[in-house]
Amino acid sequence: MKHPGLLRLAIVAGAVLALEIACRSGLIDRVTMVPPSQMVAALVRMSRTAPWFWSDTGSTFRNIGAATVLSIVPGFLIGLVIHALPRLRAVLNPVFMSYYSVPTFVFYPLLIVIFGINSASLIVMGALFGIVAMISATLASIDRIPRVYGKVARVAGLSPWQKALRIQLPAAIPHLITGIRLAVAYSVIGVIAGEFIIATAGLGRRLTLSYNEFDTPNMYGLMLLIFIAVAIVNSVLQRWEGRVHVRWYGRR
Amino acid sequence: MNVHVALKGVTRVYPAHSGQGEVHALGPIDLDILRGEFFGVVGPSGCGKSTLLETIAGLVRPTAGTATFEGREIGGEVPEGIGVVFQEDASFPWLTVERNVEFGLRRAGVDSAEIARRTDRAIDFMGLSAFRRAYPSQLSGGMRQRVCIARTLVTQPHLILLDEPFGALDQQTRLLMGEELLRLWRDTGATVVLITHSLDEAAMLSDRVAVMSSRPGRIIATIETHWPRDRDSRIVSEPAFGQLTSQLWTLLRDESRKALNAE
Fold first, then answer.
1. CATH 1.10.3720.10: does it fit domain A40-249?
2. Cα distances (angstroms) measured from residue A209 to each of A43, A48, A64, A201, A212
3. Are B88 and A157 inside 8 Å of each other by CB?
């Protein structure tokens, strides 16, 4: 077997090349899609000349960052509290199970009423989307903490707060990472989709604008930017996950 | 000789829950453990040995009776001066050996120089010096249990409670870890209470061995071993060792059968 990473790269490169050929040969018309090389060129051009580019990119990623933090930190803390109260957990469990079958976006008028058309609405949208994944991951990961750690905490005389910070949090990390990855993904979806409908700035809004103006190269250039950013964040998290697994369970 | 731990009529009943009736797990138990002795406890599986140990540790409250440590009653929390080593691997995989050992001093108001000094001593004592910066996943099961013992040692406990600490280790490693435990006991002067299901281990290590009945666990006999203080694992070849283990087995055989049939 060859290195799976190389094979994967070859498949992606092949697909990009095929797309390039299909677009350039006229198999796919230019209004529907531009060749990948032009997507890159459009992205580079926008980053150099478009006056909105850096501020809108910054605003989107700031909002995603804030939404991620707002789903991870409160999600973890709420998870801890719910875990400590088994009855509350029994009551809430069906809500968590069915949460992602509810289209959270239908609440956008409500968010506008409460927060207005601004970043706060977007951040709350992203956080609402991600927080339940984090709560569920926290509950599952605390379930898996060996009971003996709790006894060690009591022997060491830790307060509940110290126990949460020094034992439960680190002990839960390998399984929490799954929740963190989901929270990031949901925050990205929440913020960018939110920008489609309720924003005055941001990449989602720029994407909608270029779509409305038949500016196909810029539209794909912006999509490319979002894909690259998400791929980078995901690979960083994946690497972290791999490192934690090696540390905890040894090599392989 | 003065009494270090005293149990009077200690009983533990677990209340009925989720369809199960209440379980009378332990007692009543009357027991005096003397300061500085190595006290072994053997008993059939499920007899409440661990409950007994956790009662002394202050992790479990007795339903009836009282337990005192150094003259003070043991209540809802773990008294200062008690160290506990558990059967399960309780080393933290996210910390290096060094940080794991330091963890024992989290609550004690000890300054950082003192923490470093005590950590060094405990790491040296348990033969972990070469692995200070290793993570537990890089160590064998026996080494990880040494980390847990070192984590207890840094608190300089007067009473060390061990709940089948070598249960997961192979026989040869157990014998060697037993020797280390004897060395630790001699050097620290602490009282040691060892819960084990191995009759050999109890007979080789203890000054006195308590034999427990099947559930609800009571103490049916306490046997003195009369070993010298500087004993080591070589006493397993002495005739007295064979007599001790056969005496323990005679006491335990019927109780173990009861426990077996109850399951």
1. yes
2. 15, 19, 20, 11, 5
3. no
